[in-house]
Amino acid sequence: MLGDEPGPHPVKDGIWETRFLFSFYELNNGRILQLSSNEYWKDDKSYDIEFTVHSNWNKLNNGQIHKYEFSMDFWEWFNSLPGCNDVVEYEKKPSKEEIDCVMEFYWKHVHEKREETQETITV
Fold first, then answer.
1. pLDDT of 12-59, one tens digit each?
2. Which of 16, 25, 70, 81 could share a disulfide with 10, CB 3.0–4.6 Å?
């Protein structure tokens, strides 16, 4: 956990930069999952990174479905995210196997190029 290790501490040691990165993964079962990462930087060095794998489907209280599709522009999707009070139903949480699959793909194909805009990678 950030701050438990030796080295700089984000609160005690001044200004840090937090980089938020998003990527999407379509699994062979048809689900599209979102990987969000928060990376903590200071003096051009990454000290910690946190990951969360989310489902990508929300039913809104007006009956519409909000989800990411690969044909969408990222900012179109991001700027249309609903508020939590607008969601009446969430897709089931990703299973451990789905999360492991996403993370394995991320480390193998995405991590080293994570700050670059990437086209769809198909394997």
1. 566 778 888 888 999 999 999 999 988 888 888 878 889 999 998 999
2. 16
> Does 123 fall in a domain?
no
Sheet with 45-54: strands ordered across? 17-26, 32-42, 45-54
Distances (CA, A) of 28 to 24, 25, 43: 13, 10, 40
* Total structural domains within the chain: 1
Assigned domain for 29 exists: yes
What is the end-to-end Cα distance of the chain in Å, rounded?
A: 33
* Domain span at 82: 17-110
| Structural domain includes residue 10 | no
Segment 70-83, tens digit of pLDDT: 888 889 999 999 99
The token duo for 93 is 């949480």
Query: pTM surpassing 0.70?
Result: yes
